[in-house]
């Protein structure tokens, strides 16, 4: 039995990563110009435009019709069952689009399942990668869904922002707080908790921010290297992430060769809100 996985571009994973994977783009709009994330606009070009723009772009969900088309195409390609994994329903209406399209196509009785990853970007990505692993191991769709729903709470997503400016521009922090943050080089450390972005702490300077990041990893019990993990960066260069990897090599050196650490550039969906210079890590907690 062949199981196909459908994800969305908020997972920051390429459809080329696996023959059983379809990735549907969310949209990003700069004024009246609307682009499909990763299709009409590359991640690099997005950050160039984000830095150049005076106004914050807006992001849009995947619509139900796109899911309907993807379901039909998966069936035409020989899929017996389909598992759709989406960005957190608390962060986007994409999940509801998937639920509507799946129901119209017959739902679980027709072998079509929808899972809210309750995450985004690298956190969503590691769950998609785990689902793909299970699909290749021969798990049925219902078994994959049950396993992902059981394990999604074990996924830790931790991010360090370089600036509060983009959160300010998006109305997520007061302007005065952002000004003070810039003045004192405050670096917020964030996570995704219960499907929503939450603040873990604030550090003064990048070095303290990285230390706080590592303390959060230790508090979670460490990284389970037998499971998918991913590091992400927002912006035009991964220089800050590479420095973090070097500074934190004790976390990886005994378990994963440095050149084999999976790294991705964060796309428009999350990049709009965190801005350039942010770094993130997603991993499964050790049992």
UniProtKB/TrEMBL annotation:
InterPro entries: DegV, DegV_C, DegV_domain_contain. The keyword Methyltransferase does not apply. The keyword Membrane does not apply. Pfam families: DegV. PROSITE patterns: DEGV. SUPFAM superfamilies: DAK1/DegV-like (SSF82549). Keywords: Lipid-binding. PANTHER family: DEGV DOMAIN-CONTAINING PROTEIN DR_1986-RELATED, FATTY ACID-BINDING PROTEIN TM_1468. This is DegV family protein. It comes from Collinsella ureilytica. The lineage of its organism: Bacteria, Bacillati, Actinomycetota, Coriobacteriia, Coriobacteriales.
């Amino acid at each position: 039995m062949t199981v196909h996985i459908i994800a969305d571009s908020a997972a920051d994973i390429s459809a080329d990563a696996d023959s059983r994977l379809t990735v549907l783009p969310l949209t990003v709009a700069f004024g009246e110009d609307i682009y499909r994330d990763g299709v009409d606009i590359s991640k690099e070009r997005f950050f160039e435009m984000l830095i150049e723009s005076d106004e914050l772009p807006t992001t849009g969900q995947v619509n139900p019709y796109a899911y309907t088309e993807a379901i039909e195409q998966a069936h035409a390609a020989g899929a017996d069952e389909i598992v759709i994994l989406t960005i957190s329903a608390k962060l986007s209406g994409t999940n509801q689009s998937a639920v509507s399209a799946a129901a119209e196509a017959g739902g679980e009785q027709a072998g079509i399942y929808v899972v809210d990853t309750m995450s985004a970007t690298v956190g969503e990505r590691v769950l998609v990668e785990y689902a793909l692993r299970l699909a290749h191991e021969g798990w049925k769709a219902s078994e994959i869904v049950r396993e992902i729903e059981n394990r999604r709470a074990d996924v830790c997503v931790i991010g360090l922002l370089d600036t509060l400016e983009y959160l300010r521009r998006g109305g997520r922090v007061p302007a005065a707080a952002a000004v003070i943050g810039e003045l004192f080089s405050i670096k917020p450390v964030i996570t995704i908790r219960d499907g929503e972005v939450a603040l873990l702490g604030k550090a003064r300077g990048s070095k303290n921010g990285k230390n706080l990041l590592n303390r959060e990893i230790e508090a979670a019990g460490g990284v389970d290297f037998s499971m998918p993990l991913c590091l992400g960066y927002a912006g035009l260069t991964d220089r800050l992430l590479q420095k973090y990897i070097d500074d934190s090599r004790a976390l990886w050196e005994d378990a994963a060769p440095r050149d084999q650490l999976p790294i991705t550039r964060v796309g428009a969906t999350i990049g709009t809100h965190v801005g350039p210079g942010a770094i993130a890590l997603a991993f499964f907690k050790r049992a």
